[in-house]
Each structure stands twice: as structure tokens, then as C-alpha cells.
């Protein structure tokens, strides 16, 4: 099979779909790999590194798409790429269709094979290709939130860990999934007081067992959320609905109940966001303020740490990429039911009702 690795062109996205070690595994099985020039530089991998393991370097993104049976990416195609996607071409990447009607309709029209990283599901019901980026994003949410709590950036002027004689900052984490647990872990490590909320008692018991005693759990409902937002300095939205839009856990009117300078970090922005006032931002212009509340809603948070993120992503995607390359998408999905759950749009047909519901298709 001919596999293409284009350069990511989304704003400030420096990750790359595959590292040279992954390319080596493909070329030694006689697959052809086309890499767009400088595609890996943002992650610390250079054209020579790819050439040394058998890849062919191409000068333009159009050539990579034109020559490839399967495209390996990190982020969803953006408008400039829509015309490059061909019928029957496999696109294996993060899609997050429920957050973009234009992307969904473009991929339907292309009649390509769209396999979404975030939809691949293992036997235990976990999402193995989403997990590493959720881990990165959860940890980064605290790192970024701590920065934007600083007064020069219009935050409350709070040091999360506090100092002797001064109470630490308070962090509220909505969702006890991968993002939430990683965020709580990082916040606890800084010495903050952490509350993590979820509607699953099973997840809350897990958090209670594995995290320090100064991470407290609370059952999530609207009343409880309204009470907690009044006293917390940093609020992390980490709720995931597989394949669908995230629920709006914090509404516009709730902003008036928060203290000025409170920081909201919406890690669910790729799925539409779990705050009503969420709108996607970029690393170039990451925040905005509504009613004196700082919003950080960068849609590709792990892109800020591309070396770490690219290595973590290739670790989990490569086994599936090899199956697709060795067997073709139909046979690969027959022999691996986990991979088959990633099939989102196939030859113009939408495979998930959540996507249809999101846009009344």
C-alpha cells in the first residue's frame, strides 16, 4: 500500500502523523511511504530521518494526497484539504465529526474511508487512540490554567500551590475520565485543592482509591456544579460523549456566579465544548474573556508539546496502521473489531447515529 504523511496545516499544529520508527516498520514490509517535506520538523524529526528509513519526500501536500492510498494525519482535514481527499482513499486521523458540519459534509461528498482515531474502541470500552492525547491534554489543562490565573493575563492572581500561611488555589474538574484524572493528578501535584465531579460512582470510587486525599470527589449535577463554581479558581471541562457533542455543563448565566478572573479550560472543545460560552481558539490566540471569566479553549492542546505528543500517538496508532496497510481496510476491520468501530464515514455513508443527530442529516 502507498501511505502518505502530509504536513499538518491547522493553526500552530506541529505534530506529525508518524515518526521515522513507524515509517521503518512500513517500508520493511515493502509499503511505500510518502512524507511531505518538513512535515516532522515541528516534532523534532527531519526529512533525512525519514529518507534514512525508506520514505520518499514530496514537496507539496497535493502530491502526498494524490499518490497515497491511505493518509495518516493527526488532526482532521481542514477546508484547504477537502478537495484533495479522493474516493476510496483511507483517511486515518482524529476527526471529531460532531463538532464540524462542514467537515462531515465534505467527507461524505468525498466518498472516502474515514477512520477516526477517537472512535476506535477496545474490548473494555476504552478508546486506546484517544487516551494518550487525553493524558497530554489533561495534564496541559492544569499547566495552562495555572498560567492564565496570573493577574497580567486577567486571571485572579492565584498561585495554585499557595505558600506557607496562604491557602492553595482550588481546582474543579468536571469529568473523571482520562482527562479528568490526569488533570486532577497534576493539580494535586502542584499542591492545589482539587474537586473532581462525575455522574459515575464507579469512576469516583476509582479516583478516591488512586489519587491523594486532598483530591475530593463529588457527584455531578447542576445544583452541585452551581455551588462549586462559586468558590473554585480554575475549572477544567473534561467530559466526553463518544462520537457525540459534549453536554453543556456550565451555561452562560453561571458565569455571573463565578469570581472575576476565574479560568475555564475546556478540553472538550473538539466535541463542541462542555461550556455554553466555549468557542474554539488557537495557540496563537488562546484565550478570550466573557463577563470577567477567562476562557482557554484551544482545540489542539497537545500540539503545543509536539515531540511528546507525536511519540505518544505513534506508539498506539502504529499497530492499527500496519493492519490497514497489510490487509486493506475491509479485511483489517473484519479481523479487528476494535478498529472497525473507528469507521465513521464510509463511501458517503455515515456509520454513527450521533453524527447524524448532530447535524440532522
Automatic annotation (TrEMBL):
One Pfam family this sequence matches: AlaDh_PNT_N
Family: Belongs to the AlaDH/PNT family.
Binding site for substrate: 15, 75
EC annotation from Swiss-Prot or TrEMBL: 1.4.1.1
Swiss-Prot/TrEMBL catalytic activity: L-alanine + NAD(+) + H2O = pyruvate + NH4(+) + NADH + H(+)
Keyword NAD: yes
GO CC, any one term: plasma membrane
Top-level taxonomic group: Bacteria
Catalytic center residues: 96, 270
UniProt xrefs under InterPro entries: Ala_DH (IPR008141), Ala_DH/PNT_CS2 (IPR008143), AlaDH/PNT_N (IPR007886), AlaDH/PNT_NAD(H)-bd (IPR007698), NAD(P)-bd_dom_sf (IPR036291)
GO molecular function: alanine dehydrogenase activity; nucleotide binding
UniProt-recorded name of the protein: Alanine dehydrogenase
Binding site for NAD(+): 134, 198, 203, 220, 239-240, 267-270, 279, 298-301
SUPFAM superfamilies linked to this entry: Formate/glycerate dehydrogenase catalytic domain-like (SSF52283), NAD(P)-binding Rossmann-fold domains (SSF51735)
Family annotation (CDD domains): L-AlaDH
Domain Alanine dehydrogenase/pyridine nucleotide transhydrogenase N-terminal: 4-137
NCBIfam families: alaDH
GO BP terms in the entry: L-alanine catabolic process
Amino acid at each position: 500500500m502507498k501511505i502518505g504523511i502530509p504536513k499538518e496545516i491547522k493553526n500552530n499544529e506541529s505534530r506529525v502523523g508518524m515518526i521515522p520508527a513507524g515509517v521503518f516498520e512500513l517500508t520493511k514490509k515493502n509499503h511505500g511511504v510518502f512524507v511531505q517535506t518538513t512535515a516532522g520538523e515541528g516534532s523534532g524529526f527531519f526529512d533525512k530521518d525519514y529518507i534514512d528509513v525508506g520514505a520518499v519526500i514530496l514537496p507539496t501536500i497535493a502530491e502526498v494526497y494524490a499518490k497515497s492510498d491511505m493518509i495518516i494525519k493527526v488532526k482532521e482535514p481542514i477546508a484547504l484539504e477537502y478537495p484533495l481527499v479522493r474516493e476510496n482513499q483511507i483517511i486515518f486521523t482524529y476527526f471529531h465529526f460532531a463538532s464540524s458540519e462542514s467537515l462531515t459534509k465534505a467527507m461524505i461528498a468525498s466518498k472516502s474511508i474515514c477512520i477516526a482515531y477517537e472512535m476506535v474502541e477496545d474490548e473494555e470500552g476504552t478508546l486506546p487512540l484517544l487516551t494518550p492525547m487525553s493524558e497530554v491534554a489533561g495534564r496541559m489543562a492544569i499547566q495552562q490554567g495555572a498560567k492564565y490565573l496570573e493577574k497580567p493575563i486577567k486571571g485572579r492572581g492565584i498561585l495554585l500551590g499557595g505558600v506557607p500561611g496562604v491557602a492553595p488555589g482550588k481546582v474543579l474538574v468536571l469529568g473523571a475520565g482520562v482527562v479528568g484524572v490526569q488533570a486532577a493528578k497534576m493539580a494535586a501535584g502542584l499542591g492545589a485543592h482539587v474537586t473532581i465531579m462525575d455522574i459515575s460512582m464507579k469512576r469516583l470510587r476509582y479516583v478516591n482509591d488512586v489519587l491523594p486525599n486532598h483530591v475530593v470527589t463529588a457527584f455531578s449535577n447542576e445544583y452541585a456544579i452551581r455551588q462549586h463554581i462559586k468558590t473554585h479558581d480554575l475549572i477544567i471541562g473534561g467530559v466526553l460523549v463518544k462520537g457525540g457533542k459534549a453536554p453543556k455543563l456550565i451555561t452562560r448565566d453561571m458565569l455571573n456566579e463565578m469570581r472575576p478572573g476565574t479560568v475555564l479550560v475546556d478540553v472538550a472543545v473538539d466535541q463542541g465544548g462542555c461550556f455554553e460560552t466555549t468557542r474554539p481558539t488557537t495557540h496563537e490566540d488562546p484565550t478570550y474573556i466573557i463577563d470577567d471569566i477567562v476562557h482557554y479553549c484551544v482545540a489542539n492542546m497537545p500540539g503545543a508539546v509536539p515531540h511528546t505528543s507525536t511519540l505518544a500517538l505513534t506508539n498506539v496508532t502504529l499497530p492499527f496502521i500496519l493492519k490497514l496497510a497489510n490487509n486493506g481496510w475491509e479485511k483489517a476491520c473484519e479481523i479487528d473489531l476494535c478498529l472497525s468501530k473507528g469507521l465513521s464515514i464510509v463511501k458517503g455513508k455515515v456509520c454513527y447515529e450521533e453524527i447524524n443527530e448532530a447535524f440532522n442529516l
